[in-house]
Amino acid sequence: MEKKTVLITGASKGIGYDTTIKFAKEGFKNIIITGNKSIEKLETLKHNLEEIYHCNCMSFIGDLGKYENVELLFDKITTLYKGIDILVNNAGISHLGLLSEMTIEDWNHIISTNLSSVFHCSKLAIPYMVHQKSGKIINISSVWGICGASYEVAYSASKGGVNAFTKALAKELAPSNIQVNAIACGVIDTQMNQFLDEAERASLIEEIPSNRIGSPDEVADLVYDLAKGHQYLTGQVIKLDGGWI
Questions:
Q1: Which residue, 51, 124, 204, 227, could crosslink 74 as a Cys pair with Cβ 3.0–4.6 Å?
Q2: Which InterPro entries does the record match to this protein (predicted)?
Q3: Which residues are catalytic?
Q4: How far apart are CA 88 and CA 122, in angstroms?
């Protein structure tokens, strides 16, 4: 039975969902999950964690791009668990379209959801980790944060920010035995990529040396691996893309 506490943001579907199930299957009993709009899916996940895996699960609904919501989240965490040992910053959204046609509101929404939420959650998680002299922060990023993508400028910028954030914070927290790493995902079979039709998917797969699209559970496996060990591995942006980029 794993006594450590893990917080997974954006847990209602995709990578966040599979990551949550992975930690539950591996014996984690204190699991905190968040979502924003998929309230019913999040509550179903919470029910399954409690009934199937016998976890002590706390769920939270709110936009983590807003600092006041993250303060509320951590107020509850402090009351129930004192703090968290592992933070998985997974919450994120995408936006397709020309930058010149993007609204200011859309830009701010992408940046706050994908980047500011990482800052908010990390800021409030760090004091407990520093006090414990241990902790893991794992950020879910994208290969577009490394090389950029046409028609996804805002998304690329937000994930590039996550990558730089990861490298810098890792140096800051290494003396406290806290490891900070990011996973730069390639094409993963999630709802975010469901806009691709069959021809587009086939064309994309041809570009990927591994000749397939990745699955959310493969990301979850890597998240768990980073969370459980590798004390000397920090400040890394690990590409998980089948050799694509």
A1: 124
A2: NAD(P)-bd_dom_sf, Sc_DH/Rdtase_CS, SDR, SDR_fam
A3: 155
A4: 9
Sheet holding 56-61, edge to edge: 56-61, 28-35, 2-8, 86-89, 135-142, 178-185, 237-240
Reduce the DSSP state of residue 29 to 3 states and report it.
Answer: strand
pLDDT of 1 reads 60
Query: Residue 172 contacts by C-beta under 8 Å, 6 or more apart in sequence?
Result: none
* Sign of the dihedral through C-alpha 10, 11, 17, 21: positive
Domains (ranges, CATH) in the chain? 2-240 (3.40.50.720)
How many C-beta atoms lie closer than 10 Å to residue 26's C-beta?
12
User: How much of the chain is in helix, strand and coil states, percent to nearest 5?
Assistant: 50, 20, 30
* Angstrom distance (rounded) from CA 42 to CA 90: 14
Can you list the positions of beta strands (E) in 65-218? 86-89, 135-142, 178-185
Quick: pLDDT tens for 18-50.
999 999 999 999 999 999 989 999 999 999 999
Tens digit of each residue's pLDDT (9 = 90 or more) over 83-107: 999 999 999 999 999 999 999 999 9
**φ, ψ at 14 (rounded to 5°):** 60, -135
Q: Alpha-carbon distance 78 to 107, whole Å? A: 32
List of the chain residues with pLDDT < 70: 1
Please name the residue that has the structure tokens 């591994």. Answer: 210
DSSP-assigned beta bridge partners for residue 181: 138
The structure's pTM equals: 0.97
